[in-house]
Structure of Putative alginate biosynthesis protein AlgI:
Amino acid sequence: MAYHMLIYVVAFLPATILLYQLVPQKFRYIVLLCANCIFFCSFSKGLIIYLIAAILVAYFFARWIEKIGEKKSDGQKAVTKAKRKVLALGIVLNLLVLVVLKYTNFFAKSFIDLTNVFGSKWKFAPIRFLVPIGISFYTLEIISYLTDVYRGTIKAEHNFAKVALYLSFFPQTMEGPIARFSETADDLYAGRGITFNNLKFGYQRIAWGLFKKMVVADRFYYMVSYIFSNYQKLDGSIMLVGAMAYTAQLYMEFSGGMDIIIGSGQIFGINLPENFRQPFASKNASEFWRRWHITLGTFFKDYIFYPVSLAKPVKNFAKKVKNVFGRNVSKFVAPTVALFCVWICNGLWHGAQWTFIFYGMYYFVIIFIETITEAPVKKLTDKLHINRESNVYKAFQSVKLFFIVIIGEMFFRAESLKAGFIMFGKIFTDFHISYFWNHRFKLHLDAYDLIVALVGVLVVVIVGFIRERKPGLRERIDRKILPVRWIVWYACILTVIFFGAYGSGYSVVELIYAGY
């Protein structure tokens, strides 16, 4: 069972809603916890043991940190040091499970490949691990929970069931968003009754998410799979089309999934954090990542970027650089070291492949260049009397960012780093528009499906443009007269029913981010 499946939308979710509403308010969080177990077991079965173990670590280590903090007689320094040790142990235990399950084969193969360069003849035999879906997401939530208890920004929860609910809330299980305890705890445990408005807005958002996932993303899947599997015999123009198609597929699926997830939470009065905010309206890569996978970015900012940039060794290194090269260079040291750590972690978090590590380093280099060239570019545009607020300049920035993003996604999706470079190279050495035109309907996407997908993209772009210019689109639609509201939402629902990529001729497309 997954969020975009019929069984979830018309059976599991309504049954949970009904039972939730029938139970007394103080027990409603138990209903959600039971729903979490059923949902998780529907696709991971016995692997729920990993989730239970992670919840136990989060619960007991948070209580342990809190208990140490209550020992006033030991002195502040001693207490802080003891708390830090417990925090480190709790984080290491959780990361150890993640690293063993997801990265053992990657590190072992990389080591063997390296030794083979020097003449060894070792062969790699991968170990088959069963990795629970969502482990990368709930591991980060545990780290944020323990760290926030350590910092004193939240209190440790003494009710084990409530900690379990926070870390396993079923809409978030597969793809996030990565919520902080302080953001969702009150809503999760309040047990508020389901209101008509929450039910209406929740299902409206689910319908919009299904439109993006089933009408657009799932259609591009077939083209993308064909192009990235047959890149060696295809033209550079097809490589570019494949990169654009994958970017569209990824955005439509992931943001559509977030719409379904956040809509599901909204039905129960639980406000989950937003994960996308018109990312392609950004001016540069830095802004793009403040709008794309927002909760992952804020996690890395709060729990890696700031701690690393403020770490004593980094500060000392910055001082040495200042003594040699001066302040203008040294001011970039701490942010650059922290940025490097963020993007290494970002790449590795997505998966145990060199393509993901390269993806992280790609954005590290891009954002680093943007940072150090910001002042010179401003001076240059001022000198040339270029208005940076003009529509032409903004269009230039958008086009530049678009190509930065699709090239990054090309490597992200590539079968290997070598394949990514071959595809990238073909764009410059073997590019023929005529080849694309002659093969445009031979890429496992016929004329009908291509038109439906492109119209779907256009609809999402228009809606995004309206939301960027004036937020609150759903609320404005809700204030319209009844026939207008019905036309808008029934059009969305009927489009999913009649134009969704399911049934005869289509296969079930797995969620991309559920594999991370």
In short: The CA atoms of residues 222 and 444 lie 6 Å apart. Residues 194-276+414-516 form one domain. The chain has a mean pLDDT of 92. The chain is about 75% helix and 0% strand.
